[in-house]
Amino acid sequence: MKMDSELLHSPAVCLAEEEEADTSDWNLPLAFMKKRHSEKIEGSKALAQSWRMKDRMKTVSVALVLCLNVGVDPPDVVKTSPCARLECWIDPLSMSPQKALETIGANLQKQYENWQPRARYKQSLDPTVDEVKKLCTSLRRNAKEERVLFHYNGHGVPRPTVNGEIWVFNKNYTQYIPLSVYDLQTWMGSPSIFVYDCSNAGIIVKSFKQFALQREQELEVAAINPNHPLAQMPLPPSMKNCIQLAACEASELLPMNPDLPADLFTSCLTTPIKIALRWFCMQKSAKLVPGVTLDLIEKIPGRLNDRRTPLGELNWIFTAITDTIAWNVLPRDLFQKLFRQDLLVASLFRNFLLAERIMRSYNCTPVSSPRLPPTYMHAMWQAWDLAVDICLSQLPTIIEEGTAFRHSPFFAEQLTAFQVWLTMGVENRNPPEQLPIVLQVLLSQVHRLRALDLLGRFLDLGPWAVSLALSVGIFPYVLKLLQSSARELRPLLVFIWAKILAVDSSCQADLVKDNGHKYFLSVLADPYMPAEHRTMAVFILAVIVNSYTTGQEACLQGNLIAICLEQLSDPHPLLRQWVAICLGRIWQNFDSARWCGVRDSAHEKLYSLLSDPIPEVRCAAVFALGTFVGNSAERTDHSTTIDHNVAMMLAQLINDGSPVVRKELVVALSHLVVQYESNFCTVALQFMEEEKNYPVPSPANTLEPCNLTPVRDSPAIPRLRSVNSYTNIRAATTARNLNKSLQNLNLNEEGGPVTFSPGNLSTSSSASSTLGSPDNDEYILSFETIDKMRRVSSYSSLNSLIGVSFNSVYTQIWRVLLHLAADPFPEVSDLAMKVLNSIAYKATMNARPQRILDSGSLTQSAPASPTSKGAHIHQAGGSPPMPSASSSSLTNEVPKPPTRGGEQPPTRPPYTPTLGGQAPHSHQFPRTRKMFDKGPSDDPGGHKAYMNANLSTGLCDWSAKYFAQPVMKIPEEHDVESQVRKEREWRFLRNARVRKQSQRITQRGVTRLDDQIFINRNPGVPSVVKFHPFNPCIAVADKDSICFWDWEKAERLDYFYNGNPRYTRITAMEYLNGHDYSLLLTATDDGALRIWKNFADQRNPEMVTAWQGLSDMLPTTRGLARRVSICLDRSKGQGGAGMVVDWEQETGLLMTSGDVRVIRIWDTEREMKVQDIPTGADSCVTCLSCDSQRSLIAAGLGDGSVRLYDRRMGANESKWIVDGDVRFFELRSPDSVNVLQTVKGLTALDIHPQANLFACGSMNQFIAVYNSNGDVISNIKYYDGFMGQRIGAISCLAFHPYWPHLAVGSNDYYMSIYSAEKRLR
Predict the structure, then answer these.
(1) Other CB atoms closer than 10 Å to residue 655's CB: what's the count?
(2) Which segments show compositional bias classed as Low complexity (predicted)?
(3) 715 with 771: CB under 8 angstroms?
């Protein structure tokens, strides 16, 4: 935001008054600033979801290989005395060697079964190479593609070798035999997991990797060269999916501390709580917990899998902590692979983190592949020590006195930490480390409610938070909770599921599979549920039924349609919107749901939403009715009748004020068009025929040649000026396309180039694919043809047509589509053009006869169809073509914009145009085409410009974004510290300053107003001028473009094309939200209103919205495009006033009138018409003014009368007559208080809203400024400067709303501003 230095340094204004002025600005409502105006209507880009395990795995077989050789120590290990002896918590020397071996094997199996009870376990005690081979190959065979675990304990054999061998025995136990890891890989295959509990275990990991690499290279060689000897051998399995856990590094020995078990690594992996408690007691800090001994630890009551007991709770806390450490330290994909893919692997890795912590304290570093970052110093271990401490300190009293066990505060404290993160944090920060703990807490009923609440608040932070929670593994937990019947969980679960489905809609299948949809059906049907929770429930159901037949069937059986229909009239607009979308989706391509809807009169109940005050709700209702008629099942008379009724109800929305609704309307009607294609083809052919035969007086042709008529190459690409007359264009257009540079070449009348900033060349971003853009030069019906058809169809002759009765539903709908194709909002007209052209294309293809080419002349026997009057074909009988009477129609006047800089159009095979000479591309060719040159052919496959059957607007996906975005966050504009808020405060201070300073001047009284402070030549003849109320900026409209000037710096800020068709002109402008974020409204004399943003500020102007403010206004023919306040020059005939508007910022109401017999009032908040007041006069309305306090509207009419209307009374009016004078009236009396004779040939008049001044402009090239007593205070006749030439005839006048400035536009293109004397300013 540029802050004006002059304003910043202006004298401080009295604060009390300034504050007062401020509050009025703060209280003013803003128009057209909703999300639907500021955002593109499309869904968010789907985040790639990586949380779903593509390949969930199970470890189905486990090989336990123990090489203990009890009683015989291996030669390369010197043991201490005493030494660690326990294996699987058993002292092998306490029984006979064989029995000890078997007991240890059985114990190890039990320890593993705690983690994976369903696997097949095979022990191999002191085995030979063959036994190991047999074991591994049989396990792999049975496991197929699943995972196999190989556990190796090598405490009774030598250490692994650097060549990659581990040791087993011979049959007689007289020798140690090496077993190559390469062979082991071959037998085990992949996927596998290996656990090595022996000294120097890191060597095995290294060798394993080298062998795996060697295999990969062999596979590559065999793949490249099939004749290589390697390719003849059986292919070695790839070892990519193998995991290894080793007890220590390559150079380390296992700890021998007699207080520890000999298989410390195995104990950590399989009995973590037991070893963790023993290790805790061995630390010095354990002395702080009195009375706890190693013997006491053995007596901790409870079971590991019962969370209510001390042992179970410790196990639960341990799981939560290790999971959390892993999630915070590991990269996401590695975490998924190791901690979420396979139950046994996840348990082993959680326990591996403990092994790392314990074994490092004895100078031993466990190794894993894939390698993990170090975790032994993570802060969460302190939380574990605290939990153990709290538990153990209770032990003596529990065991000796039997006191009750107090549960650990661990989970409550972690939830508090999570809550602190949620409330205190900033936007961009690391994710909260407690997330995995929140997941664990969902298992506990005690904390579940709080955990769900915090989880919901976390998910509300945005899609990234949802993805994070899903990657932690939240999904199965919240899915299982849907089976709970607790009412207090309902709001929380509905909120969480809405968040999940807004980000990842693929969960619909999981919900239906687990009957989750029933949960949401019951929430939606529960009248005691608040509306916002029912809204989320219906959103979830709308996702479940979205393009998913199983979901549609399940919800139909769950009575979804009846439940939704009951809520259509709910006062909560978002609920109404989603109920309609949900209905539209359940019967989309699902006939049984449609018939269920018919039985419940669903379509009739939806009609009430078509007049809903909220545009999004109307939109959703149109969507629902569109899919209702868009079912392609068998047609019966009954269903056809329903379709016709729905179509006629939808047709009433043709002039809805919101483009989102009209876009949805085109799509809904396109479904109908697809259903009844043949009927529409018939109608299309008749209209095309009629357009050819009916010469409509085209306003474009009655314009004088000097008038600028820019090419309408696209409704949305704002061309600025174009070549000044069409004859020049035709001369320039040879059989090649126009050169691309034409688009940027802009000549004014004299032919001199006018420079434009290229930034001004685009409006709404959607324009790129519109009609006439180089991509799709495949339209049969040009915009002009359609526009002419639209106007033809309003003439009565159509009713006498034979064939389809011209009042049939199909005709009416075709007319509606024609009307929408001329919509002022480009996206609406684009969609409608696609629908019309696809039918026109099919109609002409069907009507096309066999093609015959004889002796070079083209003969034609098709039924006559619309023509482009350019290239005439030999008519029957071969007579030469005669110029057609209507050859000046609009159809072929507009050349196509070029394809690409001067390329030739692609050559195509010869083609016989059958549409009375109109090829789908004929408007690419010049009118003076040689008769027999090759026309552009059409290839039926190439019509990418036409609609496909599933045309859609993205409304539903856009609406779903609401649930993905933060709902609980304060909007930025309400945040006192936000930039948006600061900018707004600055603007309101500026406004107060302008009001105050200008008031000071006008109160002193203005005695002269002829000091010229600005003069410049405008690019077009000014027809309307409008000062911005607070910026030094003035908007000047000519026929179809708007120029912005900074009148303080005398520089041009912007110039852009308004997008109106070329036979129309801008007749009125208003600034909306001038006090804050300004928008510009332009009104043209065809009744269209367009609203623009981002003008005059270095950005491309964008169209916010556009609609047909007055529908039945046909632009009147006029020579000069000028606006006349009250037309008095009768000699020129009664010229139309165009469209006039008046805007009330306080109420958001827009009054519109013009060459019609009503004053139409629009509510911009609802974007709909609220009232039509009949003027009761036979002439046009030439100006409007309203009094917001008293609901009064004054209208000046073309017959010289001024009428006063009361909005609350409807059609009553009081009337005064004015004739060439300026009269003053007192509202309560019928007679004028004062009459002034002013200038002759009055062409423009304006009154200053604050100072008692008014100005009159005349045909006779001067301006007179009067005060309220009728005294002339200034006569302005000349421009200042060299020679002081006269001003041209005055075309428009406007006072600044506050400053004593008068802007004057004249017919010679000049625009000047006059002000009071300098000393006053």
Answers:
(1) 18
(2) 757-773
(3) yes
Give pTM, 2 decimals: 0.82
Sheet holding 1213-1217, edge to edge: 1181-1187, 1192-1197, 1201-1206, 1213-1217
Q: How far apart are CA 610 and CA 848, in angstroms?
A: 40
Q: How many CA atoms lie within 13 A of 473 on its CB side?
A: 25
Cα gap 32→50, rounded to integer Å: 39
Joined together, the tokens standing for residue 548 give 């998913």
Cα dihedral 529, 531, 532, 534 sign: positive
Coil/strand/helix, residue 676 = coil
Q: Among candidates 741, 784, 1071, 1120, which has minimal Cα distance to 923?
A: 784
What is the C-alpha to C-alpha distance for residues 1211 and 771, in angstroms, rounded to an integer?
43
Instruction: Find where tokens 């043949």 sit.
Output: 678
Q: How far is CA 252 from CA 198, 207, 268, 352, in A?
A: 10, 16, 18, 17
Residues 6+ apart with CB under 8 A from 656: 615, 618, 662, 665, 1107, 1167, 1168
Nearest to 214 by CA among 243, 239, 190, 180: 239
- Contact yes or no for 212/242 (Cβ under 8 A): yes
Beta bridge partners of 367: 246
Element (H, E) at 347: helix 343-360
Q: How far apart are CA 876 and CA 858, in angstroms?
A: 10
Query: CA 777 to CA 937: how far, in whole Å?
Result: 12
- Write out the DSSP string of 41-68: SSPPPPPPP--S-TT---EEEEEEEE--
The tally of CA atoms less than 13 A away on the side-chain side of residue 778 is 19
Name 130's Cβ contacts closer than 8 Å, sequence gap at least 6: none
All residues at 6 or more sequence positions from 271 whose CB lies less than 8 Å from its CB, including other chains: 89, 111
CA distance 445 to 448: 5
Averages of pLDDT over each 10 residues, the chain, 1321 residues: 37 43 80 92 76 81 96 88 94 95 97 95 96 96 93 96 96 94 93 96 96 88 78 69 95 94 97 95 83 85 91 96 96 92 95 97 95 96 95 89 91 95 81 92 92 96 91 92 93 96 92 95 95 97 96 97 96 97 95 94 96 96 94 81 94 94 96 91 89 60 35 37 28 28 30 33 31 46 80 50 59 93 94 93 78 38 35 34 33 34 35 33 33 36 51 89 89 85 92 92 86 90 95 94 94 92 92 94 94 87 94 52 32 59 94 92 95 88 84 86 83 62 73 69 84 85 85 80 69 92 91 82 57
State how far the Cα of 350 lies from the Cα of 444, in Å rounded to an integer. Answer: 21
d(CA 998, CA 1116): 40
Helices (H) and strands (E) in the chain, counts: 40, 36
